[in-house]
Every structure is written in structure tokens, then in C-alpha cells.
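Q: What would this complex look like in 3D?
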Amino acid sequence: MTTYRRWVLAKRPEGVPQADVFRLEDAPLPELQDGQALIRVEHISVDPGMRSRLSGDSYAPALPIGAPIESAGVGTVVTSRNAKLKEGALVWGGFGWQTHFVSDGRGVQALDPEIYKGSIKPTAAIGVFGIPGLTAFFGLFEIGKPKEGNIVLVSSAAGTVGATAGQIAKAQGCTVIGLAGSDVKCAYLKEIGFDVAINYKTAGDLTAAFKAAAPKGIDIYFDNVGGETLDAAIVNMRRHGRIVVSGQISEYNTAEKPRGIRHTLPFITQRLRMEGLVVYDYGVQFNEARATMAAWVREGKLSYREEIIDGIEQAPSAFIGLFTGESFGRRLVHVGG
Amino acid sequence: MVDAIRKTNVMETLMRNLKGGEIRLKSRPVGMPTEDNFDYAEGPVAEPKDGEVLVRNVWMSVDPYMRGRMVDRESYVPPFQIGQALQGHAVGQVIAAGKGAAFAEGDYIGHMLGWREYAVVGPAAMPMKVDPKLAPVQSFLGALGMPGMTAYAGLFRVGAFKDGETVFVSAASGAVGAVVCQLAKAHGAYVVGSAGSDEKCEWLVKEAGIDKAINYKKEKDLDAAVGAAFPRGIDVYFENVGGKHLEAALNHMKLRGRIAVCGMIEQYNATTLPAGPSNIILTIPKSLRIEGFVVSNHYDMLPQFYQEMSKLIAAGKMKWKESVVEGLHNAPKAFLGLFKGENFGKALVKIGPDKAV
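A: Here is my prediction, written as C-alpha cells for the whole assembly.
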């Protein structure tokens, strides 16, 4: 095999990305140099946060036109001239939407066999134990600071970040309210232990819905959505409430100026703290957090859902579907292996 | 003994005949308050009971936060009631002390029963002795009082300011802002303040010693002005204004910047919600912290605050402006002036003689 397949950025999207933003191409596999290893990519992720990098005018450095689409991935080392990457080892890293990845070892980590055994599959490395799960873990503990009896609201609660954050909060003795976009997802939230599940598409006025679900107010809002939902949460926050800003999917595709928020006075009257999370700040604690979460998974306190779509050809449609609310759980694309 | 009895009798007679004026809330304002929302009334002055003191108020403070208390809703302090005297910080002199009171006749104390000439002050009014030797007594309503303490707690605790960082302060020449500016300067910060007149801006640079001042009323593009003043970005934004100031600050915050939300004066009288900040999403890539606070949660810092302020005052490194209105009758006017940007420095009302005993 001398070529591999990859998705590159063909042009910059406006609003919700269309399929022609991406281009599938074949590229020659470079010969391995000393210190390099060839990884066969098995699963890749599609992430809403990646949307901002496709645009040129975003806060994050833009992905150049023609560059491979970036994403997390899991795979197997097939050939290695790097002592740290053993042939046959399962690894994860930022492999991108491609069938193969040549690594010099940086940013690539072998999967700990103590964690990935039994019912826990390697795909969990880019899901519940990857950036989404770690975002939930550190966002909740470091910014949310849950205390027993707190009322916690989670948006995009059926997604990996939201479902993980909600279940961890529940395990800390909190009352947990989840927001999701379908009755099926709401039923799932109840199944995994959420106290209340609100279907935001049918709930009508969200401010009133939050008030009804939490008459005494919300202590922690774990925000994955931004916009109007964030505003509705802000006016329902309790004194000294904490808002964890993990994601704002409603703002990613706005071709116009983003909406932002309207309600700012409650920050003073209720002494609110709102904080954006850079999960990599907690990098040194990642392994410990993974071990803790793996124990919860084995004890049945933490469950997760994966939605695996087959074939690298499907990556763009899998990604675009994230913004229509059709995805349910951690959305991954099976590339091969 | 006889003297003491005579003195007590004199005091009782005096108090029986004593009448005092007060300003009451007549109606709840919608949007910008007007003088029609206030009433002046006079009535007999009550005697101090055990543990209380009778105070002749000398100075009272008007503060933007009082606007919130005029609305019948839960705010950080309970709402004012219609037909009752307003409340707020005041400094006065004790003219009579009840049995077991913590203060003696002649003491100057700060307390929460402003908007009236005479106040019967018990523990609920949070009285605190002030030292006229440290600074003029009205300073305890400004730089050495609640506004100064707000500046201190907001900068150091909520803003988590560290020596040498870059600091942006809105309403920078105000009672809170001016103290924030000078505390930050004293700790090696690069400080930029915004204010609403050239006179205020000049004072900020020449007297308060900050690095740059922005006259936001003259800037067509506040965002560009803030960006130009902070080529390396903002570590701490001390927010007193809200609206466009917040949006501009968000755009120029550094990674891991902190926004201490102390006030949003632009919005206190708004009857419709303002648009934005539209760029609140920047909290994620910049890992920002936005935190609102109220000074009453931070009075444990009072000893450090006094220590630092005495040092800076003695060294001539802490200056402030006062905007004085004479007479209790004019207190509503002084309050309304807060929202017009008319005041320069701490807005005060002189409502009694310097010495009452």
C-alpha cells in the first residue's frame, strides 16, 4: 500500500457547513524516517468545536485550505521506527480524518490496558475518557464545584460531555436537570439517572421551564449551547451560582454576528461566576481522572453511548449532522481495522 | 451626680422636641428615576434604646446600587418600601448613647441609615467607628468606605490581580474606579481607565497616575480604542459600566483573563434588554472568568484594606475626588446625577454640621 485517503478542507463554510466544504483525496504515504511510526487509524471523532477552525475569521487559528481535517482518533501502530511506539500497540492522538497517520511520537499516547479491558473498548479513549469526558470531569469539579444538594442544569445533556457531567453531578449528590432535543434522548437521560429531562424543542419558554424544574434556582449550569438557553439559565441562577462554559454550539454557525447574551445584571445581584474551560490546563491530571472514571464505569455509576458510523466517506455527513441535533451520544466514524 | 441627672434631663427634653427630616420613596421608578419618585418629610426623633445610639448625620452617600433597591424584586439587598425613608451609608456624630451602646457621645460613626438628619443606630445598621485623624470623615463613605473596600475586594480577590498585570477600569474616575486604578498602579500594573469627560481623563492620568485614559464619549469605536490601549491584552477588567464596555473588554482579554463585575450602571435604568455582549463565547477559547460580586461578602478583608489604604494615603499615592451637594433636600438630585455622568468622584450630600456636640 503506497497511498492513503484523507479529507481536506476544500473551502471555508458560511453558516452550517455543506458537503462541498470537504474534499476526499488520495495521498502518497511517505517513507518512515527514524523516530517515526505509521499508525493505521481505526476510529475518528467528529466534534462541534472543530467548526470554528473551518472559518477564517474565528477566534481559533484557522485550518488552512487544503489541510487535512483535524480530529481525535484511535488506531494501531503498524510499523515503527520509534522506540516508544511499539508495533501492534493501540494508540490515540490527533490523527485527523485520514486512514493513516505518520507520527514522530508527539501527542500520541498508548492506551492503558488496565483501563481498556472488558466492556471498555478503545473507542472510549476518544469519547468518555477523551477530551469530551475530561471536559465534563474538570469542568464540573474545577469550575462547577458541586456540593451535595446542588441543583445542576446541563444542556446538550445526551451528548458525551453533557451525559458525563450530569452523571458525575448525580454521583456527587446533586439534583440534575438535563436538556435534550428529542423525547428519545430525554428518556435516555432518565435512564442514566437524570432527575428531570426537558425536551427544549417542545418545552416552549425555556426561562419558565427552568423555573418550573428548579423553583429555588440553579446552582450550576453546565453550558454546551450558549445563546438563548444560556440567557434563560442566567436569570434562573441561584446566589453564588457557577456557569461552566464548555461549548456554545448554537453560536458556531452564525454567519451573522453571534447572539451572545442579554442578561448580565444577575452576575452582580446573584454573584455569579462564569468561566470558560481549557481542559488542557489539567493535562497532568488526565490519567488520574481517566482511572477514576473507569472505576465509575465498572461500578455502573457512569455509562456512555457511542454512535459509530461506518466508512471514512461518511465523515462530512456525520459532522454536518451534529448541527441538526440528529446525533445521539459520542459520534465516531469507523475508518478501518 | 446632679450634673449627670441634669444633663440627662436636658437631653430628654431636647430629644422630645427634636424633629428630623428624611427622604422617603414615594413611588417606584420605571426607567430613569425623577425627583417625583422621592418625598421629603419631617418627624420627631426617637430616643436610643439600650444598645443604640442617636446620631446626627453629617454626610450621606448616594450610590448607583440604590437604584436596584427601588425596584420591588430580590436584589442583593432587600427593596426599599414605598412611604419609608431610604437607606444608605452615612457618617454622623453620636449625640446620645443608650445603655450598653458600643459608642460614646461625640464619636463619629459610619452606618447604614442615611437619607435622614437623625438616625437611631443599633447593630442592624452595621455601625462602625471612624477615625477623623486618618482622613476627613466623609472619606469613610468613599475611598475608605464601602466603595474603596469594593475596589479592594474586586481587584485582589475577585479579579485575582497579580502584581504587574494589565488592568482596564471603566467609570475609572468614580468612587470605586479611582481606588481600583491607584491600588493597581501601586502594585506595578499597567492601568487604562475609561471616563466620560476630558477633565476626568486628565485627572486620571495626572493625579491618579494611570497610564492611559479613554474618553468613551468621544470614541466612535470603543473596541478599537481599548485594543489600541492594550496591545498585549487585558489581564483584569474591572467592570462598572456594562454594555459596549463589556463587549470591548471581552474582545481584548488575555488568555485566562478575569472580569470582576462590580456594577453595570448603563443598565440600571434600562427598560429593555440591551443587545449583547454578543461575544460571550470568547470565554471558551480565552478561558475567561467573569464573576459578579457584592462587597458585603468580602468584609473579612477590611484589616488588610485599611492597612494598605493608610500606607498609600500617607505616601500621597491615593487620591480621590468628591462631588458634594448641600442639604438633605437635594439628596434626590445628587442621586439622579449619578446616572447622567455629572458627578466627578464620590457623590456625597452634606446634611448636617461637622460638629453636633
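A: To summarize the key features: The first strand of chain B starts at residue 19 and ends at 25. The CA atoms of residues 174 and 345 of chain B lie 5 Å apart.
Q: Very helpful, thank you.
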